[in-house]
Write a structure and sequence with these properties.
By secondary structure, this protein is an alpha+beta fold. The protein is 32% helix and 24% strand. Strands 1-2-6-7-10-11-12-13 form an 8-stranded antiparallel β-sheet, covered by helices on one side. It has a 3-stranded antiparallel β-sheet with strand order 3-5-4.
Length: 319
């Protein structure tokens, strides 16, 4: 370590990456004190682990799994209740295009493409029957308890990561970290800037060409998230998007990806999913009616569709 006084030391980047929440999470901070950085990063990861413990679909004792198995959780964690209540808010704003009670539909599609499944999409009758279980307004969060109607299940894949990123950033700020980012599988939030005064740059991947970018964003105290159908599929041969429309039960069509910019990662996570489901026209209309939120849509015919304020965030050479 350098021997000069703390205030004279140059800011350095300290970074850690871990596998959490079924994705890769990177936390980077700029500070002059290595032990301070290490503690701040550790504490931020603790916040992400807390969210994962509560909301992981793969942990048997998570409150998400208890809710989906038993239909209720007594004395639910305030964070779990907060995410459920926020999800209803996003459902309202998107006209039901974002709806965490989509899980029974996702289960139905997945069952069809298991080795023992039919390898064909569900029938219209199967979907219509399953859609009876999809209704965000039936999520009951009263007196610290959570309950669902029989057969209902929730999926937090479109909101939990964003919430976890926000909790990690809040933790860093509490430790006095002013320049940092947290990125969880493409859901990122960026505070401050690099030591030379340059902003964080976030490249938006070209869906057709890995390693190439369609544009880049100057990320200064904002969050960015992308929903796309080019990363995960239920079944590689079926090429079925993992994002289904909660209103119809069918996979979303018309958009390759939707990228949303907002102040908080929970907003970008949820609204990117909503735009992807709503499609170009309705998705753009929703975003234009939301204050402080912008989006970029890549359509299936490879057009870039911008909300009115998106280009203000683009890095030089792209706008």
């Amino acid at each position: 370590m350098q021997s000069e006084p703390e205030e004279d030391r140059e800011l350095q980047e300290f970074q850690q990456t871990k596998s959490i929440m079924d994705t890769t999470v990177t936390i980077a901070v700029y500070t002059s004190n290595e032990s301070e950085a290490s503690k701040a990063i550790d504490d931020a990861f603790i916040e992400i682990y807390k969210v994962d413990t509560l909301m992981s679909p793969s942990k048997e004792d998570s409150q998400l799994n208890i809710l989906n198995t038993r239909g209720e959780v007594e004395n639910a964690d305030p964070s779990f209740i907060y995410v459920l209540e926020q999800s209803k808010n996003y459902s309202e704003k998107s006209g039901g295009a974002f709806d965490i009670t989509i899980q029974p539909v996702l289960d139905l599609w997945k069952s069809k493409f298991l080795p023992e499944g039919s390898q064909k999409p569900p029938t219209a009758d199967e979907l219509n029957e399953t859609l009876k279980l999809v209704n965000y307004s039936e999520i009951n969060t009263e007196n610290g308890n959570v309950s669902l109607k029989p057969g209902m299940k929730v999926a937090l894949g479109g909101i939990a990561k964003g919430y976890a990123v926000d909790k990690a950033i809040e933790s860093l700020k509490e430790k006095g970290i002013e320049n940092a980012f947290v990125n969880a599988g493409g859901d990122g939030r960026y505070i401050g800037q690099k030591p030379d005064g340059a902003p964080w740059i976030v490249g938006l991947q070209n869906p057709d060409r890995s390693g190439q970018y369609v544009t880049a964003i100057e990320a200064n105290d904002i969050a960015v998230a992308t929903s796309g159908n080019y990363e995960r599929y239920f079944n590689e041969s079926a090429r079925v998007s993992h994002i289904s429309d909660p209103r119809t039960g069918y996979p979303s069509e018309g958009i390759i990806s939707s990228t949303v910019i907002a102040r908080n990662a929970i907003d970008t996570d949820a609204f990117a999913t909503a735009v992807f489901v709503m499609g170009e026209e309705k998705g753009l209309e929703m975003i234009e009616n939301l204050e402080g939120i912008e989006c970029l849509i890549i359509t299936e015919d490879h057009r870039l569709v911008y909300s009115s304020g998106f280009k203000e965030y683009e890095a030089e050479g792209y706008n």
